[in-house]
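=== RUN LOG ===
request id: a7f3
mode: sequence -> structure
chains: 1
length: 65
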Amino acid sequence: MKMNNRALLFPLLSILVVAVFAVGLGVIFILLHEISEWAVIGLGSALVVVVPAAAALGQRMVEKA
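=== RESULT ===
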Protein backbone atom coordinates (compact mmCIF):
# COMPACT_ATOMS: atom_id res chain seq x y z
CA MET A 1 0.00 0.00 0.00
CA LYS A 2 1.48 3.32 -1.12
CA MET A 3 1.38 6.07 1.48
CA ASN A 4 0.21 9.49 0.40
CA ASN A 5 2.99 12.01 1.05
CA ARG A 6 0.52 14.85 1.42
CA ALA A 7 -0.99 13.10 4.41
CA LEU A 8 2.27 13.73 6.25
CA LEU A 9 2.89 17.21 4.87
CA PHE A 10 0.29 19.16 6.85
CA PRO A 11 1.07 17.64 10.27
CA LEU A 12 4.78 18.22 9.74
CA LEU A 13 4.16 21.78 8.59
CA SER A 14 2.01 22.46 11.64
CA ILE A 15 4.74 21.14 13.94
CA LEU A 16 7.30 23.30 12.14
CA VAL A 17 5.15 26.43 12.40
CA VAL A 18 4.54 25.91 16.12
CA ALA A 19 8.23 25.24 16.75
CA VAL A 20 9.33 28.37 14.85
CA PHE A 21 6.74 30.47 16.71
CA ALA A 22 7.82 29.09 20.09
CA VAL A 23 11.52 29.61 19.44
CA GLY A 24 10.90 33.11 18.11
CA LEU A 25 8.81 34.04 21.13
CA GLY A 26 11.46 32.58 23.43
CA VAL A 27 14.19 34.63 21.77
CA ILE A 28 12.09 37.78 22.12
CA PHE A 29 11.54 37.10 25.82
CA ILE A 30 15.26 36.43 26.36
CA LEU A 31 16.23 39.66 24.60
CA LEU A 32 13.65 41.61 26.60
CA HIS A 33 14.93 40.08 29.82
CA GLU A 34 18.37 41.52 29.08
CA ILE A 35 16.77 44.97 28.82
CA SER A 36 14.42 44.76 31.80
CA GLU A 37 12.43 42.19 33.73
CA TRP A 38 9.45 44.51 33.59
CA ALA A 39 9.52 44.45 29.80
CA VAL A 40 9.06 40.67 29.94
CA ILE A 41 6.16 41.06 32.35
CA GLY A 42 4.62 43.74 30.14
CA LEU A 43 4.87 41.66 26.97
CA GLY A 44 3.53 38.57 28.71
CA SER A 45 0.60 40.50 30.14
CA ALA A 46 -0.10 42.08 26.76
CA LEU A 47 -0.15 38.65 25.10
CA VAL A 48 -2.53 37.33 27.74
CA VAL A 49 -4.95 40.20 27.07
CA VAL A 50 -4.47 40.93 23.35
CA VAL A 51 -4.61 37.39 21.92
CA PRO A 52 -8.03 36.46 23.40
CA ALA A 53 -9.37 39.93 22.61
CA ALA A 54 -8.29 39.62 18.98
CA ALA A 55 -9.83 36.15 18.80
CA ALA A 56 -13.11 37.43 20.22
CA LEU A 57 -13.21 40.34 17.78
CA GLY A 58 -12.39 38.04 14.88
CA GLN A 59 -15.13 35.62 15.92
CA ARG A 60 -17.62 38.47 16.15
CA MET A 61 -16.68 39.68 12.66
CA VAL A 62 -17.05 36.15 11.24
CA GLU A 63 -20.45 35.65 12.87
CA LYS A 64 -21.77 38.94 11.47
CA ALA A 65 -20.63 38.15 7.94
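=== NOTES ===
The helical segments are 6-35, 37-64.
Residues 6-64 form one domain.
=== END ===
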